[in-house]
Amino acid sequence: MMTFPRFGLVMLAASLVVFPLAIARGGIAEGLKPASAFAGIADRNARSAAIFTEMGKVLTSPRCLNCHPRTDSPTQGDAMVVHSPPVRRGPNGFGVAGLECATCHGPRNAKFANGPGTVPGNPKWHLAPRSMAWQGLTLGQICAAIKDPKKNGGMSLAQLIDHNGKDELVGWGWNPGPDRKPAPGSQAAFGELTKAWVDSGAVCPR
User: Fold this and answer.
1) DSSP symbol at 95
2) Which of 51, 72, 172, 205 is the most buried (most CB within 10 A)?
3) How many angstroms separate the CA atoms of 5 and 3, rounded?
4) The model's pTM
């Protein structure tokens, strides 16, 4: 029989209260269902659409949507407010002359010199192309854009699997710094879901 010191019992009881609260608030228990969780859906098209709906938890998170804006200006933060200072997309998504993304966004997250928080960083930091503007779209519309080579930068579905599961800029969504909520799950799980979606026909939800 296991025994706990008095302090341990107190901590155990506290954890039983805090853990369900964390689930309810989208905290530590938030994640992505594995691809295997959809194996029971017999209809292939329905299974594929359900898998993409799960992928949508990542695609519609602020970590993705902030860099897929409807306008030529990105948004920022969990509240997706207009970027400050004001910046513009520029001809290739890397900003305009004299105020390129790399002016502030270095190769990694960096702490502000005179206050709390961090400036996001990645060697590839830039806006998604206009053709991949997701803000304001339904999940089905996002899905259609993602698998369209004319809109996704010429990627095949096979290349999309690699992009979602291994691209370092995509991966920043799960390592955004302590002052931002990461995308749900992990990049590996997101890549596995993408593969399962492609393998089941890459069907979009309605």
Assistant:
1) E
2) 51
3) 7
4) 0.84
